[in-house]
Input
Amino acid sequence: MSTEQKTNNLPVAVALTGASGAVYGVRLLQCLSAAGAEVHVVLSDAARLVLKEEMNLISRDLADHSGIVIHKNGEIGACLASGSFVLRGTVICPCSSSSLGMIAQGVGETLIARMGAVALKERWPFVLVPRESPYSTPLLENMKLLSLYGATILPASPSFYRQPQTIEDLVDSVVDRVMVKLGYEAILPDWQGLDHSSKK
Output
């Protein structure tokens, strides 16, 4: 088995935190499951509240998708807390400013924060999807730190050049970018650029 094949078969870690936008995390889990990934999922306490409020879902509902393994955020002894459990990548989606700040400052009091610390030290793909707006100066500074440390800051900023017709289209424009960053095939067709064939 080649190195690339081994990497492709590695599990993925996904955390959902308390930022609004639970739909992004849920859709990402759907896409990873459809791609045949083994996905280890952690929800913060705030994420559970947001998931219920925004989508009327509970954590057990996420396990309905194949390949999903749910961990508790207080489960510091979980496999995700160690770099010895090798991952294809780690994603926090959506990522709250508090979770982002803890990781940027090296505070590992929760499994989610520990996941982030492990991703940084092991230097595998690490994607954070903040959704809050506007960004405060401390949040921007923490984003800068994480970017310098090797993480990818991928804001939940949907694109409109594909002429989205539904909320699902907007969500997919963000999730597509996350999937590609993890090395999976895009869930949207390749962008062919603007059509200049007709003159106004």
Remarks:
- The chain has one domain: 3-181.
- The mean pLDDT is 93.
